[in-house]
Amino acid sequence: MKMQLKTATIRRAVEIPLDHGTAEFATFEGLADRGEHIALSFGEINPDLAPLVRIHSECLTGDVFQSARCDCGDQLSEATRMFTEKSGILLYLRQEGRGIGLYNKLDAYALQDRGYDTYEANSLLGLQEDDREYVVAAQMLKALGVSRVRLITNNPKKVDQLNALGIEVTETIGTGVYLKEANRNYLRAKVLRTNHQIGTVAFRNSLSS
Asked: With a threshold of 0.85, does the pTM exceed it?
């Protein structure tokens, strides 16, 4: 069953040169959570051809400081490189720590250092394991004139929610595997707790052992 979306509109679009090409940054009005989310469009976007799209939740530690405790920064870099070569849209959502915020995420890290996984740590803080929804992502795509996408993700929740919100996911493309010693438990929790489709079946099985 599809959900009804309130209409959002593009507030401002500004072209910004980047190290690897140029992207048009768009801001929005009317987003459901009133957050300052942005869309970056790389190259020529043809909505009729289901453009490549990556929905990326903000991760200050990974995106900016290249933290080895997650794979967020690596996934962001991968997507921007791909879009520079092939065109595509990056939706950068201000959902730090799967929606719990930066300070709470660092509190959760302290609990993870005591042996809890990333989801257990959130719960112990009295927070949702994953507080993200993708209504704003669907609103942003609609504002950009896009209703069909090829989605770069390992997260089945993103696919299910976009389809329910009227954005047809015609293809799912997994990200690369960015396994490090410091993020093994993090990737393991994503596979076992929320069915993230990271890498091959053999790789996912190796994480569960």
From this structure: yes
For residue 164, give the CATH number of its domain: 3.40.50.10990
- 63 counts as catalytic: no
Orientation angle between helical segments 135-143 and 156-164, nearest 10 degrees? 60
CA distance 41 to 169: 18
Q: How far is CA 108 from CA 22, 27, 68, 168, 180, in A?
A: 36, 30, 16, 34, 19
Residue 49 lies in a domain: yes
Residue 145 domain flag: yes
The question of whether 114 is a catalytic residue gets the answer no
**Mean pLDDT, to the nearest integer, of 81-96?**
95
Compute the C-alpha angle 23/24/25, nearest 5°: 110
Report the number of distinct structural domains present in the chain: 1
Candidates 74, 107, 130, 188; catalytic one: 130
Catalytic residue among 132, 160, 184, 188: 132
- Other C-beta atoms lying within 10 Å of the C-beta of residue 184: 12
User: Other C-beta atoms within 10 Å of 86: how many?
Assistant: 11
Is 24 within the bounds of a domain?
Answer: yes
- Residue 39 has a pLDDT of 98
CB-based contact 90:80 (threshold 8 Å) = yes
pLDDT tops 80 at residue 3: no
